[in-house]
Amino acid sequence: MATYEYDCPRCGRFETRQPMGTAADSHTCPTCLGNAHRVFSAPHLNAVPEQLSAALAREERSRAEPEVVTEVPDSPSRLRP
Ligand SMILES: [Zn+2]
């Protein structure tokens, strides 16, 4: 079973549980019996920890524009007096 989200114009969003791959583009609203449209979202992404989310965003970005090191980092020996 998978959870699908629908948006009723009158009542707002609700979720239904249906076998994977069987969700239609619209669903009868359980409250007003009106026609609700399917919402394509990834609600579970909200549960991703902030650090992991940042790492994923950085990884995504680096595919297009890799971070390039332009300077040699100070070596420890140079820091000695
Ligand atoms: Zn409704």
TrEMBL record:
It comes from Saccharopolyspora oryzae. InterPro entries: Regulatory_FmdB_Zinc_ribbon. This is Zinc ribbon domain-containing protein. Residues 56-81 are annotated as: Disordered. Residues 1-41 form the Putative regulatory protein FmdB zinc ribbon domain. It comes from the Bacteria. SMART domains: CxxC_CXXC_SSSS. The lineage of its organism: Bacteria, Bacillati, Actinomycetota, Actinomycetes, Pseudonocardiales. Pfam families: Zn_ribbon_8. Residues 57-66 have a biased composition (Basic and acidic residues).
